[in-house]
Amino acid sequence: MNSNVIVTALLAVVIVVFIFVRQIIQLPVTQRSLLMPLILSVALGGVFLVGHPAPEGIVAVIIGAVLGVGTGLVSGQLIRVWRDEATGIVFQRGGWRYLIVLIALLLARVLIRFLFIRSGSAVDETALNAALIAALVGNFLGRDIRIALRALSLAGGSFAKLSSRSITSER
Q1: Distance between CA 111 and CA 91 in Å, rounded?
Q2: How far, in Å, CA of 94 to CA of 76, rounded?
Q3: Which string of DSSP letters, residue by residue, matches the chain?
Q4: Confidence (pLDDT) at 171
Q5: Which residues, including other chains, have CB under 8 Å from residue 18's CB and lie 6 or more apart?
Q6: pLDDT digits (tens, 9 = 90+) for 58-77
Q7: What is the pLDDT of residue 146?
Q8: What is the Cα–Cα distance from 65 to 137, expressed in whole angstroms?
Q9: Cα separation of the two ends of the chain
Q10: Where are the domains of the chain?
């Protein structure tokens, strides 16, 4: 196992844990929370491209990202989004159902590798891991697109009406 596979696996674990923790607790929908997935996507995409990946790796990452955004748009419906009438703050909370989506993405990566091995095809672990990370980040981005659409309608359709920073929320 080379260092790229280890770094990629660690990065995937960090992303999954980060997303999972964000789903367990009740959080306000803020300008920053809506922009973070986009910034993360651009930053990780830049890091990926700086490594001069093979064309097959680029295709795998694009497919992973597209599948991730698609699953994020669908699974974003599992996230509860509401406006607290007393404070006017828009909140979000995921939960265990959304965790199942993340686990399904991880299992899909294992299944894809298994299918490649069974078919006798050469499998580039680094490309598959990069595609998994793209799928996870894409899911995060798609999920937040869905949350943004719902949160903005609760905030009067204005991004500026959402808080620009996190507010301590009750659990």
Answers
A1: 35
A2: 9
A3: --HHHHHHHHHHHHHHHHHHHHHHS-EE--HHHHHHHHHHHHHHHHHHHHT---HHHHHHHHHHHHHHHHHHHHHGGGSEEEE-TTT--EEEE--HHHHHHHHHHHHHHHHHHHHHHHHT----HHHHHHHHHHHHHHHHHHHHHHHHHHHHHHTTT-GGGS-SS------
A4: 41
A5: none
A6: 888 898 899 889 989 998 89
A7: 94
A8: 7
A9: 41
A10: 3-161
Which two three-digit tokens encode residue 2?
């080379």
Res 169: pLDDT: 44
Contacts within 8 Å (CB) and 24+ apart, 121-126: 124/54, 124/56, 124/57, 124/60, 125/5, 126/2, 126/4, 126/5, 126/8, 126/57
Considering only CA atoms, give the Rg of the chain. 17
Weakly modelled stretches of the chain, pLDDT under 50: 169-171
Q: How far apart are CA 68 and CA 73, in angstroms?
A: 9
**How high is the pLDDT of residue 167?**
54
Alpha-carbon separation of residue 110 from 31, 113, 128, 143 (angstroms): 35, 5, 9, 22
- Write the pLDDT tens digit of every residue in 8-18: 778 778 877 87
| CA geometry: angle 88, 89, 95, nearest 5 deg | 135
> Is the pTM higher than 0.85?
no
